[in-house]
Each structure stands twice: as structure tokens, then as C-alpha cells.
Amino acid sequence: MASASRPEAVEADADTSPEHVAMLRTMATTQACSGAWIAVLRQAVFTTIKPDKAEVARRKRLARHAALLYLQVLWKETGPVTEAELAKIGAERAFDAAEGVTCHGMAIESAIDKKETDKLDKRIRSIMSAAKHYGLVEEKRLGAKRNALQATAKLHSLLRAHHEETAAVLARIPPENAND
Predict the structure, then answer these.
(1) Phi, psi of 89, rounded to the nearest 5 degrees
(2) Which secondary-structure segment (H or E) carries 108?
(3) What number of CA atoms fall less than 13 Å from residue 85's CA on the CB side?
(4) What are phi and psi of 145, to 5 degrees?
(5) Which end of the chain has fewer CB within 10 Å, C or N?
């Protein structure tokens, strides 16, 4: 018996909304990215068998989708990515190499207003602190109160593993025209 709040099952030959299918594909991609991120963290980073409270807190910070996004930005800006590689995808660096990438700079780039900048700055600092603990990020001193962030080879390897895991999951999603 069908629930009153749920539409009846769609017949196999019924029309489907291309927009809904595209939205579902986007949703599946986002979920694949998040799931792959947690999988590679568990495999390559979270190796302590009995983590203490501080370790659990660091894990939670890194397991968030936002952590993946900020670490990807840092990798793009300070990792082994060349200008030619960025140009191939129509991208460019968001930060001046001489100024370096800072938590505050990433917060400014991400925030809508000053109030949000302060909140994001705190969140990004927390994420980068956890990433430093695991050797994914290093800091270099730019001045008395300024530290630039730098992606490490370990972050590069982790993001490569994330890419491979995500690609494997996405390969299982039927192509756009599979049911035409």
C-alpha cells in the first residue's frame, strides 16, 4: 500500500525530468566525494587505534566536507600545480605567491561579509591545525604575526587517493544517456 505522502511508483517507460536526473547526478557526485574523503582519511591518516579526545576532535574537523574544500584550495595554490595545468581548466590562482596563503586570506575569499569572515577564519584555523598535526600542511613564517600555509607531499598523496576513490565511485554511476 502506497503512503499518502509519497507519490505512486513511476512506470518503467514513463518520462523522466532531465533536470531531476541532472540534480540526482550532482547529488551522487557530491556524496561520492564526501564518502571517498572519509575513506581515504581512515585509510591513510586516521591510523591511531584508540584515539584520545583531542584526536577524535581533530578527526571530526578533517572529516567535514569543508576541510576537503579548504585543503584542495591550499593544494591548488601551493602544491605542485603549474600555471599551464590551471589554464587547461580555465582556472587561475586566487592568492599572490609572494603574500602566501593564510587562514584569514581563505576566510576573506570565502565569506560574504565581515561577520562571516571572522567565523570562517576560526573554522579554517581549526581545520588547518588538525591538518598540521597529521603532516598535511606546514606553516612558514612571513612576519611577526603572519604565517603562510603550504601543502605537503602527504596532502598531495592524500588528494590523489581521494581523486582515485571518487573516480571509482563515479564510474559506477550510469552515464547521462544510459537509459535513452
Answers:
(1) -110, 10
(2) helix 103-110
(3) 6
(4) -120, 10
(5) N
Q: How far apart are CA 35 and CA 119, in angstroms?
A: 26
pTM of this structure: 0.84
- Under 8 Å between Cβ of 155 and 136: yes
Amino acid letter for position 19: E
What are the start-end ranges of the E strands in 8-153?
A: 137-141, 147-151
Tell me the DSSP string of 22-33.
Answer: HHHHHHHHHHHH
3, HSE (Cβ side, Cα atoms, 13 Å)? 2
d(CA 37, CA 59): 12
Would you call 88 helix, strand, or coil by DSSP?
helix
pLDDT higher than threshold 70 for residue 100: yes
Grid coordinates in use for 30? Answer: 557530491
Task: Compute CA distances 165 → 10, 132, 159, 172, whole Å.
Answer: 33, 23, 10, 11
Residue-wise burial string across 88-114, b where 16 or more C-beta atoms lie within 10 A, e elsewhere: eeeeeeebeeeebbbbebbbeebeeee
Residues making up the chain, counted from first to last: 180
Band the pLDDT of 14: cuts 50, 70, 90: low
Residue 32, Ramachandran bin (φ over 0: left; ψ between -120 and 50: alpha; else beta): alpha
Q: What is the pLDDT of residue 25?
A: 85
